[in-house]
Design brief:
The chain has 271 residues and is an alpha/beta fold. The protein has one domain (4-257). The protein is built from nine helices and eleven strands. The chain has helices spanning 51-54, 57-66, 132-140, 144-149, 154-164, 179-202, 213-229, 242-245, 247-250, and strands at residues 4-10, 24-28, 39-40, 76-81, 84-86, 119-122, 125-126, 168-169, 175-177, 232-235, 237-239. Strands 3-2-1-4-9-6-10 form a seven-stranded mixed beta sheet. Strands 5-11 form a two-stranded antiparallel ribbon. Helix 6 (179-202) packs antiparallel against helix 7.
Length: 271
């Protein structure tokens, strides 16, 4: 039977994550204390010391180095975040009137999308008056991304540059893909992110809003890489707020299962 594991990264111990479907697996990042039954990047082969700069990418590294051999060719490996969960369909607008619960709309392993995709990415943001490169420059600074493109292998430099001149971006380093593509992606991406980190460190860029520059760079590369090398389809996501994540509330009930909780989801980005 095909296995579809989605690893849900978190930097806090939210009780809600134990209430998610079994194929969405809680994964603690950083140095805080997490439940023993959760995955934790402090164990086994890891790069946890880079989490401050790499964010969720240190968790991707852990899965690559410690779990990849557990998957067969037909399986899927995916990632999400404690505030962002995959939905089971593609929604072009928020759901204004529905009795359904958010839990009933979370991704499941029977989704037909896995029979017709090599990878699944988040429904992309479309920048109406800007490019992916232009948006990066406005948020993080000039020249940084252009300089870091030079560290890519030659087979990707020109194509990545062309991608950045477009206006479509799948955000957050959230993806679901087959093990062989995951391995190829990690080989390409980790070589690049360490080069980017050294560049940013030597330029004294890793402070304030830009302390996580390496992961923001990778976010653009991830969207590019899967579009270039795999057959991509899209799903939407829900963004969780304080009500859902509150440990006090989750001691009493699972808010994901309450009717009408899908009404304001998914979060739909318009630029």
């Amino acid at each position: 039977m095909r296995k579809i594991n989605i690893y849900c990264f978190t930097i806090e111990n939210y009780k809600l994550l134990d209430k998610l479907p079994k194929n969405i697996i809680p994964f603690g990042l950083g140095k805080k204390i997490f439940p023993e039954h959760w995955l934790n990047e402090l164990k086994n082969d890891n790069i946890h010391e880079f989490n401050k700069y790499f964010g969720e990418v240190t968790g991707i590294y852990w899965v690559w180095k410690n779990l990849l051999s557990n998957f067969s060719n037909d399986d899927f490996i995916g990632f999400c975040q404690f505030r962002r969960l995959w939905l089971n369909d593609l929604f072009l607008e928020k759901q204004k009137k529905t009795f359904r619960s958010l839990n009933s709309q979370l991704i499941n392993s029977n989704n037909e999308i896995f029979n017709k995709s090599e990878s699944v990415l988040l429904q992309p943001i479309i920048f109406k008056e800007d490019t992916v490169m232009g948006q990066f420059k406005k948020n993080y600074g000039n020249n940084i991304l252009n300089d870091c493109i030079k560290f890519l292998n030659t087979k990707d430099r020109k194509d990545f540059q062309s991608y950045l001149e477009g206006n479509s971006l799948s955000i957050c380093n959230m993806f679901i893909t087959k093990p062989n593509f995951f391995n190829q992606y990690c080989n390409d991406m980790f070589k690049w992110i360490f080069e980017c980190y050294e560049y940013c460190k030597n330029k004294n860029l890793l402070y304030g809003h830009n302390v996580r520059l390496p992961v923001f760079l990778v976010e653009r590369f991830t969207s590019f890489w899967f579009h270039k090398y795999t057959k991509v389809n899209y799903l939407s996501f829900a963004r969780l707020g304080r009500f859902y994540l509150s440990n006090n509330i989750n001691k009493i009930l699972n808010p994901l299962k309450i009717p009408f909780t899908f009404r304001m989801y998914p979060t739909f980005h318009k630029y």
